[in-house]
């Protein structure tokens, strides 16, 4: 009887389902936690874990702590991470030059302009197109408008002459810097502050929240509020991972992401305003506001970028963007 009971217990244990623990979702990004992206990802983590009652756990890796600019896309495609929120500039180099329309200088006058694209049919088409490279687009996230920094004010094209300016790997952004008279130097975001400190590069462009949270105010004496271009992100996951999920879990993750992105977009302006206040209080960086005339001259100088890069981005994408913006 003793052996019979042991055998029955063994059979029952083999038949019982094995508890593998919660589904872990690794979410990597390259910025600090207290940026709009960092806070939106934390909100996503909270919502997923609450709504799944712990069945799913989101492990967040901020500040390039898991993967950086150069390898995060490859990591996603290899299944080494489940979710990313790359800047829109990064999609051009992996086969989606249409995303580079967001890099065009002075295309947008406000975040409301940006949302006419990201929240409309054109934005849906952009995300849908990611499927051809094994990705699923879950939505767009704002950071804000970029501003120029260096160790001198950048109020005219003459101020840019000869400067080595750090840029993302984007042909549009590189062309923008050349149009202003500067030399574009592509570098990973995580290496930018050190490169500035060591004078490997002379300046860069960033939204205010990135400039502040990365400590660039300690290595740049001047920041000029050019507001010349937009920086945003697309949240993506791997197609293989997404298709492995039950439909109910796909819906849960998509709704949590939609809610988190709404939150992130609502706070983006506020985070940048807080960063500007902090910069004024720190007093280490002089903040300059271009006049309307100076801003127009910078706009005129970079207009050639629209003409040069239109064919690469795709003229039909640009035409649709201008139509959405009412140009």
UniProtKB/TrEMBL annotation:
Alphabetical GO biological process terms: C4-dicarboxylate transport; transmembrane transport
UniProt keyword Transmembrane helix, yes or no: no
GO cellular component terms given for this protein: outer membrane-bounded periplasmic space
Domain of life, per lineage: Bacteria
Keywords tagged on the record: Signal, Transport
Residues in coiled coil: none
Entry's family note: Belongs to the bacterial solute-binding protein 7 family.
Classification via PANTHER family: C4-DICARBOXYLATE-BINDING PROTEIN DCTB, PTHR33376
The protein's name: C4-dicarboxylate ABC transporter
Organism: Hydrogenophaga crassostreae
């Amino acid at each position: 009887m003793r052996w019979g009971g042991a055998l029955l217990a063994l059979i029952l244990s083999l038949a019982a389902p094995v508890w593998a623990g919660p589904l872990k979702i690794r979410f990597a990004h390259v910025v600090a936690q207290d940026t709009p992206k960092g806070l939106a990802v934390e909100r996503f983590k909270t919502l997923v874990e609450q709504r799944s009652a712990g069945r799913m756990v989101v492990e967040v890796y901020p500040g390039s702590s898991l993967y950086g600019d150069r390898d995060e896309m490859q990591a996603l495609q290899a299944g080494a991470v489940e979710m990313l929120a790359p800047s829109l500039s990064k999609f051009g180099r992996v086969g989606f030059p249409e995303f580079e329309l967001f890099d065009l200088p002075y295309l947008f006058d406000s975040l409301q302009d940006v949302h006419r694209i990201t929240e409309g049919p054109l934005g849906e088409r952009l995300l849908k197109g990611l499927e051809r490279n094994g990705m699923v687009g879950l939505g767009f996230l704002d950071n804000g408008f970029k501003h120029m920094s260096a160790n001198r004010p950048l109020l005219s094209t003459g101020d840019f002459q000869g400067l080595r300016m750090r840029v993302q790997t984007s042909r549009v952004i590189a062309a923008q810097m050349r149009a202003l008279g500067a030399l574009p130097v592509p570098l990973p975001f995580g290496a930018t502050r050190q490169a500035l400190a060591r004078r490997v590069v002379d300046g860069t462009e960033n939204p205010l929240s990135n400039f502040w949270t990365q400590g660039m105010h300690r290595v740049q004496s001047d920041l000029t509020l050019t507001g010349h271009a937009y920086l945003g992100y697309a949240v993506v996951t791997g197609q293989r991972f997404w298709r492995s999920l039950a439909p109910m879990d796909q819906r849960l993750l998509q709704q949590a992401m939609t809610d988190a992105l709404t939150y992130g977009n609502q706070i983006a302006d506020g985070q940048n305003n807080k960063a500007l206040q902090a910069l004024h209080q720190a007093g280490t960086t002089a903040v300059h506001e271009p006049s309307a005339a100076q801003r127009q001259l910078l706009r005129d100088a970079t207009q050639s970028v629209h003409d040069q890069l239109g064919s690469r981005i795709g003229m039909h994408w640009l035409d649709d963007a201008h139509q959405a913006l009412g140009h």
